[in-house]
Amino acid sequence: MKFGQGDGSVKAVVAVGNKVFTAHQDSKIRVWKVSRRSENVFRLVDTLPTTKDYLGKFMKQSNYVQTRRHHKRLWIEHADSISCLAFHNELIYSGSWDKTLKVWRISDLKCVESIKAHDDAINGLVASKGIVYSASADGKIKAWGKEGKKSTHCLKGILQGHNDVSLNSVIVSEDERWVYGGGSDGFVMGWEASSNSTSNGDDVQNQLEVSWKLVCETKAHRMAVLSMCLMGEMLCSGSADKSIGIWKMEAFGKLCKFGVISGHEGPVKCLQAATYNVGGGFMLYSGGLDKSLRVWWVAKPSKTREEDTNSAKSSEEFPIVL
User: Fold this and answer.
1) What are phi and psi of 155, to 5 degrees?
2) Does pTM top 0.70 for this prediction?
3) What are the ranges of the WD repeats (predicted)?
4) Are the beta carbons of 49 and 108 closer than 8 angstroms?
5) How confident is the model at residue 130 (pLDDT cuts 50, 70, 90)?
6) 284/313 Cα distance (integer angstroms)
7) Is 199 exposed, middle or buried (0-12, 13-18, 19+ CB in 10 A)?
């Protein structure tokens, strides 16, 4: 099945209910809806920012921001390619090469917030239980959240990577204790999150403060780490070296090498693990710049390392129409 149209390369996809949001190189987000007549038919229902959003803002000069010298845009517009999307709590988050993070409300498809988030392109986003993490080419992962009853996001913390090394992807463990970032130097870095309850004066409602501590630096690949995903205690990393690394999370957030998958003929740009177990393992989907989508079966860790050899096997390669 294929749907869409030629409006610039698709950089990211998020599915929400019966809608699919696609982020494009032309700085637009397109919204597709499943047809009532057939689950295999999608139709374009809107483009973000919407025409209604434009019309409500274009007359006021205060709604324009400087994007480059002698050039202004509405603050609801991305000025460069949109590289990543995330969904959480009825909101869509978009990260762009224009260094901004924008927040879109699902109910009316309106842009409700724009954040000057980084000093360089945003490459990855993940949202988890009230905190949004953005990974950037400036070598930082930033955590964004809301305080109290405020409707806007504020900076909660900065997870510093290696100097002058782009961070290309970010993931968070299900219990929110561990945050991992993949760098262009081939390292996967891990941070541990810790929470403290604080109160302001007579305010009986405590605020939850979160801090992050670097606990893991693992040389995972010979070349840049481009993508990552988590399945329980297993972390998968895709690289520009055409391989997929399989890692087991151990005590204190450390990563232990479990296996390596080879087979792609180009950099591995995206990874997604199935949410269901198969035969004591899980299915791993990988998309590469070789224009292929591959599906792998990854066994669960055994008690002895000798039994872990060749635990990741290719089940099938699917042809993709782009």
Assistant:
1) -75, 125
2) yes
3) 75-114, 261-296
4) no
5) confident
6) 10
7) exposed
